[in-house]
Amino acid sequence: MGGVPGMSGGCNTCRKRKKGCDKQHPFCGQCLRLGIECAGYAKEMKFISFEAKPSRTAKQSALTQRKKSTPLALLPYKCELSAFRNCAYGAFMEFYLPVDDSHLIKQGFCAGEWLKNVPNMAVNNPAIANAFDALATARMALVTNDAKLMTHSSKAYGKALIALQRVISNLTSVISIEVLSCIMLLALYEIYGNSVDSSTAWKSHVQAASSILEFQGRSTKVSYPEMQFLLKTRMERIVHAIGKRKACDLVEPDWTAPPWSDCVKNPAYEIVDIMACMPSVMEDSDALKTCVDVAETLDKATSLANKCRLIWTELEDWHRSQELATVGPRYWEEPSNIRLTKDPDAEDYMFPKRFCFPDPATAYAEIVYWTASLLLASTHYLACVWLKDNLPVASILLQSSDEIFSFDENAELYCRAFESANNIAQSLEYFIKPERGGTSIEVVGFPIAVARGFFEYCNSPKRKWFDVVLKYIRDTRSVPLDTFLNGTSEGQKLTLVRV
């Protein structure tokens, strides 16, 4: 039986459609079955002021009455929701995007460039609209400490998952950029939304994006929005592969050549290509522990050494080219502003000096370079240590046949890893400034995890510095990055630096 608007007690969508509603909560079953957005059961009415069109009598009255009362009008629910979304979207974009991203876009390091197209896609896409709603509202809830907003965010997150599942189940072959945008919005929610078990959910979203892209393959030509989205997903997929310590497909020619057939690679694309080799190195290092005899160990260790040497050469050539292309120093030191305690009189700086950079693009390039260097040096170093402790015969043979496994080289690897971790730590203050936007906080999350893991392995007191920085980010920027990274480091598969 058709519902009667205002009397049936059904959801707002069924009442408007004058259809029967099963009154399930929080969303009615009929709306879910039809794949339409359920507006819920709220009956709230809001009042706004507006200037009514003056009548002839009113015009005459205005001549003698300078001030007159302002009439009230009801604001429809959809208008209220649209106004709220616009406010939340704008606040999140203002927080997330840097104040000046011209240098970043020029060098290809703007992680938030893809997000600029999302509000337009959200107009006609319920999955994206709910995902962005969840993300933006979660940000407002953390800033204002509003429990109701966080509840609204969680509901929008659930609706986004349902809508996304429905869209994916109806697809035949081509995966649209809207689907991938929705998945990455949900991945961002795990970082900025302070959700339960956020690291596990983040891995699930990134794995879903990876599976879709691997299945679909890569075309030879991509548009500018697709290029920005490709860059975003590539870095996320590399981080995920490094966590699993398994090689990823992004090192294959299908992913390193075709997308750039019509343009020249800039420094951002090149360093990401080098970073994509790291999961393979980590997998090869772990494979040493599965060898059954000395001969197999020697073969795999030699292969690992050659691969590391090749990647070191690529890293150094890349960094040398950047130094030659930069006018002046790429970074310099200035006094640090973050103390270990809140005592203004205490000289308790973990690092008395912090790194400054000429522009954000250079800063991003350097921290990605240091992170890649730290991963390569620490992985290679730990392989040397394992061989020396568990297979002394193989270690001695390698030292005599390949200088890269000698004791001196082993010590040099440790020093290089320690220096890279130090550089990452000293550069963090630059990235967490408000004018850098939320993208910079997202960018440094992975370098923090890698550097902190190395200092923990070394049992260095410098590991405490990262707890101070993460607390500073939560207190001043309302970003629960510490919760996300702590969950990541506790996972069984996401060990970034294996001890």
Automatic annotation (TrEMBL):
<dbReference type="InterPro" id="IPR036864">
    <property type="entry name" value="Zn2-C6_fun-type_DNA-bd_sf"/>
</dbReference>
<dbReference type="GO" id="GO:0008270">
    <property type="term" value="F:zinc ion binding"/>
</dbReference>
<dbReference type="GO" id="GO:0000981">
    <property type="term" value="F:DNA-binding transcription factor activity, RNA polymerase II-specific"/>
</dbReference>
<dbReference type="InterPro" id="IPR021858">
    <property type="entry name" value="Fun_TF"/>
</dbReference>
<dbReference type="InterPro" id="IPR001138">
    <property type="entry name" value="Zn2Cys6_DnaBD"/>
</dbReference>
<feature type="domain" description="Zn(2)-C6 fungal-type">
    <location>
        <begin position="10"/>
        <end position="38"/>
    </location>
</feature>
<dbReference type="Pfam" id="PF11951">
    <property type="entry name" value="Fungal_trans_2"/>
</dbReference>
<dbReference type="Pfam" id="PF00172">
    <property type="entry name" value="Zn_clus"/>
</dbReference>
<dbReference type="InterPro" id="IPR053178">
    <property type="entry name" value="Osmoadaptation_assoc"/>
</dbReference>
<protein>
    <recommendedName>
        <fullName>Zn(2)-C6 fungal-type domain-containing protein</fullName>
    </recommendedName>
</protein>
<keyword id="KW-0539">Nucleus</keyword>
